[in-house]
Amino acid sequence: MNDLRRQIDSMHEEISSTLTQVVAGGHYVLGPNVTAFENEFSAYCGVRHCVGVANGTDALELALRALNCGPGRDVITVANAGMYAAAAILAVGARPVFVDIDLETMTMSPASLASHIDSNTAAIVVTHLYGRIADMDGLMTVAARHRVPIVEDCAQAHGAERAGRKAGSMGMVGCFSFYPTKNLGALGDGGAVTTNDDAVAQSVRRLRQYGWRNKYESVERYGRNSRLDELQAAVLRVKLPKLGGWNARRREIVRSYRRAAGDALLLPDVNGTDYAAHLCVIRTPRRDALRALLTRRNIAADIHYPIADHRQEALHGLVPPDLDLPNTAAVMGHILTLPCFPEMRDEEVERVCDALASFGCENP
Questions:
Q1: Among 9, 96, 148, 172, which is least packed, fewest CB within 10 Å?
Q2: What are phi and psi of 197, to 5 degrees?
Q3: 3-state secondary structure of 152
Q4: Mean of per-residue pLDDT scores for the chain
Q5: What is the DSSP string of 226-295?
Q6: CA angle 316, 320, 321 (to 5 degrees)
Q7: What distance in Å separates the CA atoms of residue 192 and residue 207, rounded to the nearest whole number?
Q8: Residue 363 has pLDDT above 80, yes or no
Q9: What CA–CA distance (Å, rounded) separates 43 from 252?
C-alpha cells in the first residue's frame, strides 16, 4: 500500500544532515525546530497559530478540551472514519453522536447534522475523509446557526484547499496527524492544532505541557504531556516544501485509475485541489471479487474502514442500538483502497490500471 523507505531514500542526505544537527544542538523537546515548524505550518495553512503535539489523536483531544467539551455534553461526528474522533471524544468524557454522510463524498452531511444538533452539542468534529474537504460551507452554516464550533479532522488532508482556504483554516480548530503514512509524515508520531482563536491556542499550549502557564505553575485542568519533539519537527520542516508536489502526484495516480476503470467502478473525483488523495478509495458492490483479482496480480488493497464506529464493541451502551445511518451503511460494504503514494513507479501504476480495466471488462 505504501513504501515509506522510497521517500526517505529520495531525501536521505538532507534528512540525515538535519537529524545530525538536531542531535548536536542538545535541545530535543519544544525547541527551536518546533517553534520554526509551528510558524511555517501556520503560514502554510493560513492561520495565526499552530501548536505542535504528540500525535493526531492528542490534537483532537486537546482541541476538544480547549473548547470545554466534557462529561454531560455531546460531540457530533461521523461513523465511517476509523474511530479516531470517537476515541478523542470519549477521552474528554463527552458522548459521541453520529450523523450520516453524503453518499457521493462520504463526508458529513449538512442535512444530517442539522437534524441531530441541539442545545447539548458542544462541538462538531468534521473529518476530511481520505483527503477530501467536506462541505464546509454547508456544515458551517448549520453550526453557526446553533453557535457550535467545528473541529476539522485534517489527519488525511494536509494541503487540501478549497476557494483558496486550506484544510485546518476553516473551522474553529484544525487537527493534524504527522504519522509516517500521512501526506506530510514524520519519522514517528506527531501532531498539531491550528487555529485563528488566540484563547484556544493558548489553552492547547498549556494543556500539552501539564497545564502550565509558567514552568511548574499549572493553571489548566487536565494538562498532560503531549509534546512534538525536535527530531520530528526538523523532519517535517524538510518535508513541508515538498508537500504540494507529492499531493499533485497522488492526484495524478487517481486520475490514471479513473481513466482505466471507466464507468465500471466509482472512483474519487479529481477536480482542483480540494482532494489531497491521501487514500484512493473506490466503491463497487463486487468488492470481494475485485480484491481477489488484485491479490492474484500481487497488488495490495485494504479497507478504510471495515467497521462503522457506532457498531464498534467499545461503544456498546453509548450509542442507540437502533441508530440508522443509511448512507454510512450503504458504503461500508463497497469501499476498497488502492495503492496511492507519491513514490509509486509508473509501471506499478500501470499494473493497477491494467487490473482495473480488466475488472471493468469482466463486469461492465
A1: 9
A2: -90, 115
A3: strand
A4: 97
A5: ---BHHHHHHHHHHGGGHHHHHHHHHHHHHHHHHHHTTSSB-----TTSB--SSEEEE-TTHHHHHHHHH
A6: 70
A7: 13
A8: no
A9: 26
Cβ neighbours of residue 37 under 8 Å, at least 6 residues apart?
Answer: 50, 52, 228, 233, 234, 236, 237, 240
Give just the sign of the alpha carbon dihedral 312, 65, 61, 79.
positive
Question: What mean pLDDT do residues 208-228 have?
Answer: 96
Q: How many CB atoms are closer than 10 A to CB 5?
A: 10
Pairing mode, strands 173-177 and 191-195: antiparallel
Place of cell 517535517: 236
- What's the length of the chain? 364
Q: How far is the C-alpha of 49 from the C-alpha of 33, rounded, in Å?
A: 16
In the chain, what are the domains?
4-241 (3.40.640.10), 243-362 (3.90.1150.10)
How much is the average pLDDT of 155-170? Answer: 98
- Cα distance between residue 79 and residue 89, in whole Å: 13
Q: Grid coordinates 485541489 are at which residue? A: 273
Take residue 205 and report the three cell numbers written for it.
Answer: 499550549
What pLDDT does residue 123 have?
Answer: 98
Angle value at C-alpha 226, between 224 and 230, nearest 5 degrees: 145
3-class secondary-structure state, position 173 = strand
| Sole residue written with cell 514524520 | 186
CB-based burial of residue 139 (10 Å sphere; 0-12 exposed, 13-18 middle, 19+ buried)? buried
Q: Which residues contact 110 (CB under 8 A, 6 or more apart)?
A: 135, 138, 139, 141, 142
Using only C-alpha atoms, what is the Rg of the chain?
21
What is the C-alpha to C-alpha distance for residues 78 and 129, in angstroms, rounded to an integer? 10
pTM: 0.97
The sign of the CA dihedral 109, 112, 116, 117 is positive
